[in-house]
Design goal:
323 residues, mainly alpha, two-stranded antiparallel ribbon, elongated
Length: 323
Amino acid sequence: MPGKRVLFFFTCLVAMATCFPMPAVSGSRSLTVTADQQLGLGDMFFSKGEYDRAVTAYETFLYFFPDDDKANYARFRIAMSYFKKEDFQGALEKFENIYRDEACGKFRIDAGFMAARCYVALGMRERAVTILEMLADLSHDNSVRDRAFYETGWSCLWTRGSLDDKMLAMAQENFAKISEKSKERLNVGGILNEIEIARHGDDGLLSSMKSPRLAGALGVVPGAGYLYCGRPGDALAAFLFNSMMMLAAYEAFDNGNGALGAVISVVELGFYGGSIYGSVGAAHKYNKRQTALFLDRLRTSARAGIMPAGRGTGLQFFLQKPF
């Protein structure tokens, strides 16, 4: 009997639901995001410097709209987001994928240039120059060739140490290849003049450089290496300290205190060697400082160039006018 009652009530409920259906909820809507809206979201995050969120937005766009005509734009912006957040290895992989993909059209050239910048940031200058030379050789567009020569020149000049004649000559050679029209627009004549002075001028960069070997040799006389590098304060300190230590060791031996003299001599030997090593380091620091001053003048006069970014090993590339 209980089973029949349950079946009876269930039948009644079904009948009531059939005869009196529940009214539909009014005002219900479905949320639809268009391709342009999703892409715009990525652009908004990118413009605000929120590059991780920009990558997520662009990747979502590519997932839902893989065949959209702006898909290559989204791929390029993803790579740029990695570059902006200074993940140069990740950016390099994505730029190279775009560069190798013929379907990416106009973005291939820009991806090639950005891949070269990634190589510079990663300390692989030769690889960067190889890509830029390839872009110049394969392109029949003068603007692309000029851009390749221009960025190759700046890539040769970028360094965290000091420049040598080989780097300056390579930069000069590439700047000289730029067409006359672009030379005038980019003030390349001024750049070439500055490099020529740096290489061959009496007061140029190379003539002002200090020889680390000579600094080390002069360091045999305590303080002389520092004095050669333009650090008279350090020179005086090194001379006085080493002289006093040598005198103390001599006095100890002269007074028959050989043990004390030996201890002082060992300590002095460390300071003496450190003075020579410090003289070599002072020469490198001097050359690095002179190189930085030269590049600052060059960037200021050209209003263009390559420089380290705010943190890490990053770079900032800035051009006077876009190509």
